[in-house]
Write a structure and sequence with these properties.
The complex is a heterodimer of chains A (263) and B (310).
Chain A lengths: L15 H17 L3 H18 L3 H4 L2 H32 L3 H7 L4 H30 L6 H14 L1 H13 L2 H18 L11 H7 L3 H14 L5 H24 L7
Helix pairs in contact in A: 1-6, 2-4, 2-6, 4-6, 4-8, 4-9, 4-11, 6-8, 7-11, 8-9, 8-12, 11-12
Chain B lengths: L2 E12 L2 E12 L3 E5 L6 H8 L7 E6 L13 E3 L12 H9 L8 H8 L14 H13 L5 E5 L7 H16 L3 E6 L2 H7 L2 E6 L2 E7 H8 L2 E7 L2 H5 L4 E10 L5 E9 L2 H11 L4 E7 L2 H8 L13
Parallel strand pairs in B: 3-7, 3-8, 5-6, 6-7
Antiparallel strand pairs in B: 1-2, 1-4, 8-9, 10-12, 10-13, 11-12
Helix pairs in contact in B: 3-4
The chains are: A mainly alpha (263), B alpha/beta (310).
């Protein structure tokens, strides 16, 4: 018997990219085989557009306001999906024994977390399609093809803080508490971020507050991408700050997590 | 011999309960180590610490020379999920492929399925499997990455006799191929079938760490209960491993103690007792529970325990 601590075998390496791909695939399969789980986040934003914007012809027939409304509800769709699907899935999985088992495998936290973010974004983008369809068919919203494509890219990037916040909520709370936190956060962000009610009509204090909300950053950045205008510095700085802060929070919570704790 | 993993005076508390209490243990290459103890003894906590899923409250846990909470030190560790853990919607082959993808030198899915007897189940969704089928797949997952150290937590709970023997044979085969195996159980039979070295733990403490034969000799003991005014002399008779004396008043104020004696061979002891001519009454013999047998192991000097009821 000796104290020699053996060196890990060096023959062969696991490709982190392959591992990431396997986790994304498994997560998507798990969700898509129970598709009812994602119906809610797919239908809700399109219904908001259909019931609140389409009947209001002053907005629906005005190309600028209608485009902004469709963009706002696309941001809302992606945000809801990110917060809800990711936050709730992670919170529920922590209460099941499969996730703890995966933690016993040689799986770096960043690989698991980014796979969860990727799988959820794929579903988030699916939830935006009904919004775009309703917007194109029933409102005067318009966008150039390049504006639309750039808008989608910017939307993908600006959804990252919501994904990270969803993951943070999932790691911080048990699932029942997570639902409450997500609902409060989701509607708070949506109203204060100008997704339901255009910020042009906000009183001054709310407009000032709104500029600190990630939903507002996402909305403004996507609008300027679609319009082809230059974004303001506060939008970029705000989105970046939320992304970095949320990423740091998730990594810390993941490392601290030991599954559900009962006392 | 190489030390693959080590616990050094590890304590782990959950709130006010202490699951492990200053436990030190080394896991050396090439052995099958049996962790034996009743439910709640701290066996599973010990495994979750080795897997890096939990951190010790104090003390250090080392796996392949490093901190098991870092993924790179777990690259040669295999373990089993609980059988209820397999994701219901994924197919068996998808679960095997996902787990095996974490290891550089994986066992092909078909070969693993053949060895653990579920080749006909690969296309099924895990939610459609029986408990025993899930159990076999869960154990197979531990071997999917050709690990050097395998942790098996209650591997055959809920399996029928044939399936249990099949799994034991597979575990022995991997041991022969060079894997080191830690197996927990609250079944003495399972530990006897597999282990060479046995660690007995109870209430978070290591009660014994010895060869299988040495532990088995102690565990196969009986409790002889009797009342006698000559308790001290009876406790010193040959064959007594441990004596517990409870003071009780005699019928006319004289001192009569009740004795619980842990003995290896109860027949032989009764012969010795009768032969000694010492007085006794109300003799009763029963098999020692695991807990009593383990308690006997903690006493290096036999026949010294004394307890006065409050």
């Amino acid at each position: 018997m000796t104290t020699v601590a053996s060196e890990p075998r060096t023959t062969g390496r696991v490709s982190m990219l392959h591992l990431y791909g396997m986790h994304v695939r498994a997560l998507l399969l798990e969700t898509l085989r129970v598709p009812i789980a994602i119906i809610g986040s797919m239908v809700f934003p399109a219904m908001s557009l259909l019931f609140f914007v389409v009947p209001n012809r002053a907005v629906a027939d005005d190309p600028e306001l209608a485009t902004q409304a469709v963009i706002s509800l696309s941001v809302f769709a992606v945000m809801v999906s990110a917060l809800f699907n990711l936050g709730l899935t992670i919170a529920e999985n922590r209460e099941k024994p499969w996730d703890p088992y995966l933690r016993s495998l040689p799986l770096p936290p960043a690989v698991r977390i980014s796979a969860q973010l990727t799988a959820t974004s794929a579903l988030s983008f699916a939830s935006m399609i009904p919004v775009l369809l309703v917007g194109a068919l029933a409102t005067a919203a318009t966008a150039s093809m390049s504006g639309l494509l750039l808008g989608l890219v910017v939307l993908a990037v600006t959804s990252i803080p919501f994904l990270l916040l969803g993951a943070a909520i999932g790691y911080a709370f048990p699932s029942k508490a997570a639902i409450a936190v997500i609902q409060v956060g989701m509607f708070g962000f949506a109203f204060a971020g100008g997704l339901f009610f255009p910020p042009q009509f906000f009183p001054d204090w709310l407009e000032a507050l709104s500029r600190a909300i990630p939903a507002r950053h996402a909305r403004e950045l996507v609008i300027s991408a679609v319009d082809g205008t230059a974004p303001d510095l506060w939008m970029l700085a705000g989105a970046l700050a939320w992304t970095l802060a949320a990423a740091a929070l998730v990594l810390w919570l993941y490392r601290r997590d030991e599954g559900r704790r009962y006392r | 011999m190489t030390t693959l993993a080590r616990l050094d005076s590890v304590t782990r508390r959950f709130g006010s309960t202490t699951a492990l209490d200053a436990v030190s243990l080394e896991i050396r290459s090439g052995e099958i180590l049996g962790l034996l103890g009743p439910n709640g003894a701290g066996k599973s906590t010990m495994l979750t610490l080795l897997q890096g899923r939990r951190r010790p409250t104090s003390g250090t846990v080392e796996l392949f020379g490093g901190d098991p909470s870092l993924a790179r030190f777990r690259s040669e560790l295999g373990s089993t999920p609980q059988e209820t853990a397999l994701p219901d919607t994924l197919r068996v082959s998808e679960v095997i492929d996902l787990v095996a993808a974490h290891f550089p030198d994986r066992v092909p899915t078909a070969q693993l399925a053949e060895e653990f007897g579920f080749a006909d189940l690969l296309r099924r969704q895990c939610g459609a499997l029986s408990g025993g089928q899930k159990r076999r797949i869960a154990v197979a997952l531990a071997f999917a990455g050709r690990p050097r150290l395998v942790l098996l937590d209650e591997p055959t709970t809920g399996l029928d006799v044939d399936a249990r023997h099949g799994l034991w044979a597979a575990i022995r085969r991997h041991r022969a191929d060079g894997a080191t195996v830690v197996v927990t159980s609250h079944y003495l039979e399972e530990i006897e079938a597999l282990a060479e070295r046995v660690v007995v733990i109870d209430r978070g403490r290591v009660l014994a760490d010895d060869t299988l034969d040495a532990v088995r000799a102690r565990v196969e003991s009986s409790i002889v209960s009797l009342r006698s005014p000559s308790a001290e002399r009876i406790a010193e008779l040959a064959g007594v491993v441990r004596a517990e004396r409870l003071e009780e008043g005699g019928p006319e104020g004289g001192r009569v103690d009740r004795l619980d004696l842990t003995v290896g061979d109860s027949d032989e002891f009764v012969r010795t007792l009768v032969g000694s001519g010492l007085p006794f009454e109300r003799l009763a013999v029963r098999g020692a529970s695991l807990e009593e047998a383990f308690l006997a192991l903690t006493l290096s000097d036999p026949a010294t325990s004394e307890r006065t009821p409050a």
